[in-house]
Specification:
InterPro entries: DUF1487. It holds the Pfam family DUF1487. The protein is built from 12 helices and 10 strands. By secondary structure, it is of the alpha/beta class. It has a single domain, classed as 3-Layer(aba) Sandwich (Aldehyde Dehydrogenase, Chain A, domain 2). A 10-stranded mixed beta sheet has the order 3-4-5-2-1-6-7-10-9-8, with helices on both faces. A hairpin with a 2-residue loop joins β9 and β10. The N and C termini lie far apart (41 Å).
């Protein structure tokens, strides 16, 4: 696949232009597989999960897996009706509603799609966990690939998620909205089981308040478009995960998005090393366990930026690079 080696890496410094770049697509989403929500999806949601074991759990502060280990999640290799895909611990839902910390995921065209999907697919099947990704923004040039891989890894929702009041309310709202949705095929999720849902170009404010049980997907071409999209919804994101080959746009997003925590090429990293500095509004930098932590003051608000360094980075070659980062000019304006 073109640029696959480049996209599945963790280089966090600006690099020279490549000989070839991906061609921007004309449309935001594939139109041939557009699906409308039907009444069957809304009212036939129950699935039998009795007697099955627990769904594998990814803890909140789990480090991002190495590129070579991420790949597609275990959902891709499991049977659609396996016990792991049908069960859910009800305490996870109850706790997550109380401390729901929604995440925004941004995937650039040369970002590491494998690692991004690792967390995105988990949130797709467990949308009420406390740190679930609720909105994903993907660069238009790789949207079709991402949609295909999301759809291929969809499995039945467990009964407690499928019958959750917020998920059912979102399903009913989608009946009245002319929005394209991405759902699993009947081979993956046979009726009457409930499918995960990705809503294209929709906003959570259209579906309800609080966690909606679905993921909203948007495409973008520039960093400014990302900012415009985020300002149109009412979700207060607790964190933003950004997947890109270089830090270009990272600080522009940190300055303009109303969010505190920004993870670059990683997700759900333990913030313990930087929390003391953030608590006293101190601009600071720490390198702890091969992660770079820093606090940044934007107007009156302190923000946290985290990204991996050293062994967490996949090196493309052994050539030495003498590259200096340009100063962040707009921060001084």
């Amino acid at each position: 696949m073109q640029n696959e080696d480049r996209r599945n890496s963790y280089d966090v410094i600006s690099i020279p232009s490549y000989e070839s770049l991906p061609v921007k697509s004309e449309s935001s989403h594939p139109s041939q597989d557009a699906v409308r929500v039907t009444g069957r999806m809304v009212f036939n949601l129950k699935c039998d999960a009795d007697g099955y074991g627990p769904l594998p759990f990814l803890p909140f502060n789990a480090p991002t897996p190495p590129v070579s280990e991420a790949g597609d999640t275990d959902f891709a290799d499991s049977d659609p009706l396996s016990k792991d895909t049908l069960t859910f611990n009800v305490s996870d839902i109850q706790a997550s509603i109380e401390v729901f910390c929604p995440q925004l995921m941004i995937i650039y065209g040369l970002g590491d799609i494998n690692c991004a999907l690792y967390f995105l697919i988990d949130s797709l099947h467990r949308p009420f966990q406390s740190n679930a990704v609720v909105t994903v923004l993907v660069e238009e040039s790789m949207c079709n690939e991402l949609v295909e891989r999301i759809r291929a890894q969809m499995r039945p929702l467990c009964e407690r998620v499928a019958t959750h009041s917020s998920y059912r309310a979102s399903m009913k709202a989608l009946l009245d909205l002319n929005l394209e949705v991405i759902v699993a095929s009947e081979e993956q999720v046979p009726p009457p089981l409930a499918t995960p849902i990705v809503v294209c170009n929709g906003r959570h404010s259209q579906l309800g308040s609080g966690p909606t049980g679905v993921i909203c997907l948007h495409t973008f071409r520039t960093t400014n478009e990302i900012i415009d999209i985020c300002r149109k919804d009412n979700v207060n994101f607790e964190s933003v995960t950004i997947w890109n080959e270089s830090v270009e746009g990272l600080y522009q997003l940190a300055v303009n998005l109303d969010c505190t925590n920004f993870f670059f090429n990683c997700c759900n990293v333990n913030l313990g090393p930087i929390i003391p500095s953030h608590a006293v509004n101190k601009i600071d930098v720490h390198i702890v366990e091969r992660f770079h932590y820093e606090t940044l003051q934007v107007n009156e608000k302190m923000k946290i930026i985290v990204f991996p360094i050293g062994a967490h980075l996949a090196q493309r070659n052994s050539e030495e690079r003498n590259i200096s980062l340009a100063p962040i000019v707009f921060l001084n304006e």
